[in-house]
Amino acid sequence: MKFALCLATLLASAPVLSAPAPASAGKSTTTSSAFFTTSEQRSRGTVTVGGKRITYQTVAGTLVVHGKEWQDTDAAEAAAKPDKKDAAAPKPEASMFYTAYFRDGVPAANRPITFLFNGGPGSSTVWLHMGAFGPVRVETVDGRHTPAAPYGMVANDQSLLDASDLVFIDAPGTGFSRIAGEDKEKAFFGVDQDIDAFAQFITQFLSKYQRWNSPKYIFGESYGTMRGAGLALALQNRDVDLNGVMLLADILNWDLLPDDPQVNPGNDLPYVMTLPTYAATAWYHQRIPRPAGGLRNFLSEVETFATTDYLQALMKGNDLPDEERQRIAARLSAYTAIPVPYLLKTNLRIQYGAFQKELLSDSAQTVGTLDTRFIGATLDPLSEVATYDPQSSAISSAYVSAYNDYVRRSLGYQPSIEFKSGIPIYESWDYRHQPPGAGKPLIALPNVLPDLALAMKQSPNLKVMANGGYFDISTPYFAGVFEMRHMPIPPELRGNIEYHFYESGHMVYAHLPSLKALHDNVADFIRRTSAR
Q1: Fold (topology level) of 7-255+395-530
Q2: Which long-range contacts (CB under 8 A, 24 or more apart) does 41-46 make?
Q3: How confident is the model over 259-303, as pLDDT tens digits?
Q4: Which of 27, 162, 169, 513 lies 20 to 30 Å from 66, alpha-carbon distance?
Q5: From the UniProt record, which GO molecular function terms apply (predicted)?
């Protein structure tokens, strides 16, 4: 793979990006008070995808949405509610930033439109925008740290503009999106609050740009898959049926997330879900013999072991006989390259942070969380688990730096605020979710499988596409398979779900061959499901 091209070279080359439209063509917000109004900055560009030149219009702008509790409540009604502190207090609102790309020369009446977002929670959408489907892509080094600036940007020949118009959305508080008003964090930083904000945004956008009759799609990555599954139902409740829901690195049931066995004993499914990824990682780094038949055949064998002998052994808990314990430990070691004594000490349960640190411990290296193909120096040799993610360290600066330059210089959008690639709200997020049929939000880890299932039942033509990377520990690909297998839908709807997996990690598109495969699969999905 070639190294990143100089950013200055890109900006000097006219064919890649057209110059932005004059300031009079749009208004770019410059003050914090003015930011909580709708705004837009227009520009134009070209990109070549599949050998065909595409001209497009870009709109970088903001739409304003309100907190879930306040949407249809005026000051008098708020004053009458005992749970409202002050009727005169400013209502919580979010100025949500987006970058939309509209292909020229294609009637909007039947042109698909796709709303895309990353997750976190607390992440902007810079990753999907600059790494996957936008018309411009940042170049990073695959598998190791990308050198410091200047970073390279290229016209993205895998942009999804060949199949759909695109709207990249930053969640409230992230990117150039901001929140304000009384109890603003409570109003937007939670599972249901977040879904509602995006539902408001999408319906506003459809009206503003007259796209109500377009085939509609959502594409969510990571926590964005939870948002996406919830949105399928939330938009239906606003009389918007989607043509398709596309999930990348899905995690719809948080009970499947890996955890410390000392903190949450008895929850054994996460260890079953992550084992195939551990095996894929050991295979990739050549810590185990590579059997004939390739990675996919090998993982099928591991998946069978994980869901039979390994699961049964874990379910026996302390009653597992020593002889069987030894046998299972030996099989685990053969698949993961983790020594048998270590596996016995951990009671056959491999915490993912520990696996990251242990696999290459003999060379004092740590493998990635989001993408275990990436490696980096172990920061603390005495720690039990990895203390950072080598992939995040390897590519974050490239994405954020290139994006800041692109949006401010090439798109002409220059707000007087900082771009926030992510905000630290993971631990303070309100994870309560009210699934359909429940009278109130549940005090439990969120699970939006019921939401997506109900949306599919109510709209039986709705199609779902699940995508995952074999080398992703944070949201293991096999957990996505498990989730879809347990979707409470009738047999006749199960064919509406399709799966695609790639020899990459969480950010599938960080591996160029996988980016091409992802583009081709997604473009084909949109074309098939939007055709009449």
Answers
A1: Rossmann fold (3.40.50)
A2: 41/411, 41/412, 41/413, 43/18, 43/19, 43/410, 43/411, 43/412, 44/18, 44/20, 45/17, 45/18, 45/135, 45/136, 45/410, 46/15, 46/17, 46/18, 46/155
A3: 666 677 888 999 999 999 999 999 999 999 998 899 999 999 999
A4: 27
A5: serine-type carboxypeptidase activity
Helix axes 294-305, 322-336, angle to 10 degrees: 160
Query: What share of the chain has pLDDT > 90, as a percent?
Result: 76
End-to-end CA distance of the chain: 40
Distance from C-alpha of 71 to C-alpha of 361, rounded to nearest angstrom: 53
Dihedral sign for Cα 5, 10, 15, 18, please.
Answer: positive
Under DSSP, the state recorded for 5 is P
Angle at 210 between CA 158 and CA 214, to 5 degrees: 50
Q: Which two tokens stand for residue 441?
A: 């939000």
The CA distances from residue 361 to 58, 282, 334, 354, 380, in Å, are: 48, 13, 17, 10, 11
pTM for the whole structure: 0.89
Tell me the domain boundaries of the chain.
7-255+395-530, 258-391
SS3 41: strand
- Closest by CA position to 3, among listed 156, 147, 159: 147
* pLDDT digit string, tens, across residues 54-101: 999 999 999 999 998 755 444 445 445 555 555 567 899 999 999 999
Q: Is the peptide bond before 121 cis (omega within 30 degrees of 0)?
A: yes
The CA distances from residue 384 to 366, 379, 425, in Å, are 12, 11, 25
Amino acid 76: pLDDT: 42
Contact assessment for residue 96 and residue 401, using Cβ atoms and an 8 Å cutoff: no
